[in-house]
Amino acid sequence: MPRVTARDNPRLLEAARLVASSRDRRKRGKCVLEGEHLVSVYLDRVGAPETLLVVEERANDARIARLTGRVASRDVIVVPASLFAAAIVAPADVAVAAVVPTPSQSTPPPATFHLLLEDIQDPGNVGTMLRTAAAAGVQQVLLSKQCAFAWSPKVLRAGQGAHFATTIVEDVDLAAWARSFAGTGGAVIATTPRDASPLYAAELRAPWAVMIGNEGAGLSSALLSWATTRVTIPMHEGTESLNASAAAAVVLFELVRRRGPVSRG
């Protein structure tokens, strides 16, 4: 495994630029996975990364060694901790990172279970909802153009590997997609605080598309107009509405309850 001590090493520079710049991530179609868990999930579900960066002082840790043993030595670089921290800017306990290509952005044909995210701004919310969607068995998560970038470091951290357990498509015209989906008999489910059926009493037949709107403004009127069902989450009187990620979790797992257990296979 090559040992790198120069700040201008091309692989190290590439990783640093991808961490620092959303523009570079989009342009190059790559991102950086930080930490043992994300790298391990990627190895299990996708394959070897383009580059694996390892903190020199931790290279002999058993868990790190197991990861490096799964990657061709030519694609592993060992970096002093100070240089790694300057390039990756990750939490202090992170000792490994991987440069990987982001999946294709083309929108696949509709499936059975979808989550539509409109203009969700907070990266932590996007990552949390991706994690929830993967846990619920959602097959496709479609994001509007104004959502936080799904492959940014903060979203990847919050997603905890969910990015590789469901299909993620960004920059989708959600209104056009919802119109088409409803036209084929799909249930387009909007979460709204009023003028809606209580979630647990609503008739909701698959295939489903659950729509979650912006943290402050909620769903746009353009997207809301294509909802086939509007639901509200029953809450104790006098309490504030749930945040976007909590609302998504409640609705998605109500649908899981109706469908039955999610297969882990």
Please describe the biggest sheet, giving its number of strands, its sense, and whether it closes into a barrel.
Answer: 7 strands, parallel
CATH superfamily of the largest domain: SPOUT methyltransferase, trefoil knot domain
| Helicity range | 25-40%
Q: What series of H and E elements makes up the topology?
A: HHEHEHEHEEHEHEHEEEHEH
Beta-strand segment tally: 11
**Whole-number average pLDDT?**
92
- Put simply, the count of helices is 10
**Radius of gyration from the alpha-carbon trace, in angstroms:** 20 Å
Q: Major sheet: order of its strands?
A: 7-6-5-10-8-11-9
CATH-level-2 architecture of the largest domain: 3-Layer(aba) Sandwich
The tally of structural domains comes to: 2
Percent of sequence in beta strands: 15-25%
Low-confidence stretches: none
| Overall SS class | alpha/beta
Report the principal-axis shape: elongated
User: What's the CATH first level of the largest domain?
Assistant: Alpha Beta
In the CATH hierarchy, the third-tier topology of the largest domain is known as Alpha/beta knot
From the N-terminal CA to the C-terminal CA, the straight-line distance is 35 Å
Question: What do you see in this structure?
Answer:
There is one protein chain. The chain has 265 residues and is α/β, with parallel strands linked by helices. It folds into two domains: 10-101, 60s Ribosomal Protein L30, Chain: A, CATH 3.30.1330.30; 113-259, 3-Layer(aba) Sandwich (Alpha/beta knot), CATH 3.40.1280. Helices cover 35% and strands 18% of the residues. The chain has helices at 10-20, 22-28, 36-45, 62-68, 81-88, 123-136, 153-159, 174-183, 221-224, 244-259; strands at 30-34, 51-55, 76-79, 96-101, 113-117, 140-143, 167-169, 187-191, 197-198, 208-212, 229-232. A seven-stranded parallel sheet has the order 7-6-5-10-8-11-9. Helix 7 (153-159) links the parallel strand 6 and strand 7 (167-169). Helix 1 crosses helix 5. The protein starts with 9 loop residues before the first helix and ends in a 6-residue tail after the last helix.
